[in-house]
Structure formats: structure tokens, C-alpha cells
Specification:
Two copies of one chain form a homodimer. Chain A is mainly alpha-helical and about 230 residues long. The first copy, chain A, has helices at about 10-25, 35-40, 45-60, 75-100, 105-120, 125-140, 145-165, 170-190, 190-225; strands at about 30, 60-65, 70. Chain A binds a DNA duplex (30 and 30 nucleotides) through helix 3.
DNA sequence: GACATGCTACATGTATACAAAAGGGAGGGT
DNA sequence: ACCCTCCCTTTTGTATACATGTAGCATGTC
């Protein structure tokens, strides 16, 4: 909640809201009232409005015609489509990363992977999760293509509010780790075609896991509204 | 220039500016002053500001720290990177389109292509260009994946201000037409792998043409600043 | 003459007040 | 009893006035 390190009010409001959405403090579907937010942050509607506009453009928030805005809800078919694109994009990223990463970057990727193995073996799930995410980011940035990085991340942030539900799926971590290992080796070795295909499939599976979760939620929602 | 068909001022300002940028009336590098724009559209700074924010997020406009904003300039390396991503994305689009287009959509794609052949043979370059662009859009939308469509188009609009320079390159249209023909046949036949590869290469070549143009401009700019 | 310091002017960001459109409810009419 | 209309309320968008910080310039001092 603490902010203002040379940021404008609009920026700090946006960052704060983004954070609330990412952490689930503002869950999908939560409504956002301009005035309420203005009060909460002790600013006027102007910077709140500006922040909301940006959140809307980023896709994290949707504007409902006459009832304020709400945190974007992703249903099953949206989720499937999102991962359809995401897996292709990350595949492409892996391809370029395998071609372009500097030797230092390749080494760093290996190191990062080794750290996640350690975290996994130590049973430190939170740390493992964090490192695993960072692995993806490192590959994305390894493309050395700003447009690709931005495009991929823009999609990625839409998924953040949902990612935490990936945790705790039994057996996921093992498979995840194996995937990363293979991807890392392919990238380090410069086998760009392998890297692309491995990463694409890897992200696809991740998507399936999340889709399963969402499908579960959808069923529950349907049951609730039917009851 | 006149609008307001139920649009807010912010929206019509944004649309107007977008249009000016697309058509080259506001060329890359042109500076945009909030107050001047407010006067031009007879509105206050507030909606102009809102419009600018959106243009900045879309990447069409860049904010220069203390000298207003300018229409984004794309240099050679940016252009290369943009097309690197664009060709991959359009390749993916072709893949999904080849799998998912309805029979009606496939037929429409063939028809569209035939129309561009006609326009080409009639020597109607403007029409040919328009139809050729529409061909791309039809493939993109044929994916039936909103996220992919949006992602691809978001990149695409950054290129719009530059596309008109593709015109008038001798021999481009023939090759272009041949490419489209092959892509169309692959998509209609559902040969998704072929479609993907053909479209990817096609867009890559388009990028090379544009990159050549930009490189030319860069050289001139360098010569001018050196002289 | 050069550097530092303060002033000016502008760009940027913010607050507040105002206007307009849209929905819902209440009251009246059929 | 039901519907229609009008008004009121709430939300959204806009204008305007104000605050703030920075850059460039000028002025003064060393």
C-alpha cells in the first residue's frame, strides 16, 4: 500500500491496483468504483480515472456500461484461447532465445534451473514457483527482441491472477521441472527447433492444468446459480 | 475531421489522431502538443490527455520527457524486430485459420484473392493494396481466437504508418500475389503446416522490403545530419 | 570569465466543479 | 392492475483552475 517514490498518483494507484489483482486481493469479478478508490488513495477521481484506463487497456479490468468497472473474469474458452496464443509465443521466444542468448545468459539460465531443482528438493514450493516463473521470463528476455518481449508479457499479465491456482496440483512440479530441464538444455545447446517445440508443449500443458481449474469453477458457478 | 456520433470527445480525438497518423498527415516524429490539440478540436485538455494516453499505450505515440509527445518513429532495428514477431504471428494465424475457418470463410478468402487478381490485372494499385491488406485481416480473423487477433493487430497498427511505402516497389505485386495464392490454397485445403510456413515467409519478405525503405531513410538522415 | 544559485516560464499532473446521459422508481393515467 | 411517462439519482465525461517540479536562463559572485 505504501507508495510514491517519485511516481505520479495515477501511477501509484495503477501499481497498487495491479498488485491487488495479481495477489488476488481483488479477485476476478470484483467491482472498482472510481470514487471509492479515490477515497481509498486520498486522491481525486482524475488520477484514478487515468489508472483505470490503463488497466482497462492492459486487459486486467473491464468496463461495465453503467456499474463501474470490474476485474476481468476469464472463462474457460478465454483461458483456452489465451494459452493457445501463449504457448505459441513462448515457443517462438524459446526459438529466438536459443539462437541469441549470450553465453552468460545461457549460463544464468542453467544456474536458475539448478536453483529451482534445489528449491524443489527442499520442498520450498513458494520459492520453486517464483524461480519457475523467472525461468519463463529469462527465456522471453533472451530473445533480445523488445517487441516480442512486450507482446508475450502483455498476454502473460492477464494470466497472473490465475496462476496461483496452478500450485498444489499433485505431480505438477515434477513434470514442470523435467520440462524446464529439457528446455534449458535445448536452449543452451542452441537447438532452437527443439527448444521451440518443447516450450510450446510445456506451456500448453500448463494451460490445460489451469483450464481444468477454471472448468471446475465454472461448474460450481453453474451449480450455484442453478440452485 | 468532424465527428461525434455518440462518441466521447476523448474517443473522437483519439480516432482523429489515429487516422492522421495512419494516413501520414501526422508523420513519424511529428510533435503533439496537448494545448494545441485541445484548441484544434475545441475541447479541453482533459479528453485530449485521455486520447494521448491511449495512443501512447498502443505504441503509436511516444512521450518525450519534457517536450510533449511525438508520433513514434521506427528505426531499422525496430522494424526488423517488429517483422520478426509479425511474421511468426501471422504464420500462427495461418495455421489456426487453416484448421478452423468455416467453409464459407474459406470460400470468401478465395473470392477475395480472386478480386485482388482482377485489381492487379486492371492495374488498379490502390484497390489491389486494399484487398491485399484485407486478405491478411481475413486470415487473422479466421483463427477464431480473439486474443490472437488482438495481439496480431496490436502489432499491425504500429506498421500502418509505414505500409504505404511498400507500394510502388517494382515487382512486389507479382510476388505478393503469388504468395497469397499459395497461402490461400493451403488454407482452403486445410494444410495448416504449409499455410503457416508460407505466411511466415511471406510476411518476412514484406518486412525486408520495408526495412530496405527505412534503411534508405536512415542513410539519408545520417547524410543530412553529417552535412 | 566561469560557475553556482535563484528566478521564470512552461509542461505536467491534480483537484474540483459542472454538465449530460442513462436507469430506475414513483406517480398518474388507461 | 398494468403500463407509460417524467423526474430524480447516479455515473460518466468534461472544463477549468491550480499546484508542482524542472529546464533554461540570467544574474551575481568568486
Amino acid at each position: 500500500m505504501a507508495k510514491t517514490a517519485g511516481l505520479t498518483h495515477a501511477e501509484s494507484v495503477r501499481l497498487s491496483l495491479e498488485n491487488d489483482i495479481f495477489t488476488g486481493r481483488l479477485p476476478p469479478g470484483a467491482s472498482l468504483d472510481e470514487e471509492a478508490l479515490a477515497r481509498r488513495f486520498s486522491v481525486s477521481r482524475t488520477p484514478v480515472r487515468e489508472a483505470m484506463l490503463q488497466l482497462i487497456q492492459s486487459g486486467l479490468v473491464e468496463k461495465k456500461p453503467r456499474q463501474g468497472a470490474i476485474v476481468t473474469q476469464i472463462d474457460l474458452s478465454d483461458m483456452i484461447r489465451l494459452f493457445e496464443v501463449m504457448s505459441e509465443l513462448e515457443g517462438i521466444c524459446a526459438k529466438f532465445a536459443a539462437r541469441r542468448m549470450t553465453p552468460q545468459e545461457r549460463q544464468a539460465l542453467r544456474k536458475l534451473h539448478e536453483q529451482s531443482v534445489e528449491a524443489y528438493e527442499a520442498g520450498n514450493h513458494d520459492k520453486y514457483y517464483t524461480l519457475s516463473r523467472r525461468f519463463h521470463l529469462m527465456v522471453i528476455e533472451g530473445t533480445h527482441n523488445h517487441e516480442l518481449i512486450e507482446t508475450t508479457n502483455r498476454l502473460g499479465i492477464k494470466l497472473v491472477p490465475y496462476r496461483r491456482f496452478q500450485l498444489g496440483y499433485p505431480g505438477r512440479s515434477e513434470n514442470n521441472l523435467r520440462d524446464h530441464e529439457a528446455i534449458m538444455e535445448a536452449i543452451v545447446a542452441g537447438k532452437f527447433e527443439d527448444a521451440a517445440e518443447l516450450f510450446r508443449k510445456h506451456t500448453n500443458v500448463q494451460g490445460d492444468v489451469l483450464a481444468e481449474y477454471i472448468a471446475m469453477g465454472d461448474r460450481e458457478a453453474k451449480a450455484a446459480s442453478a440452485g
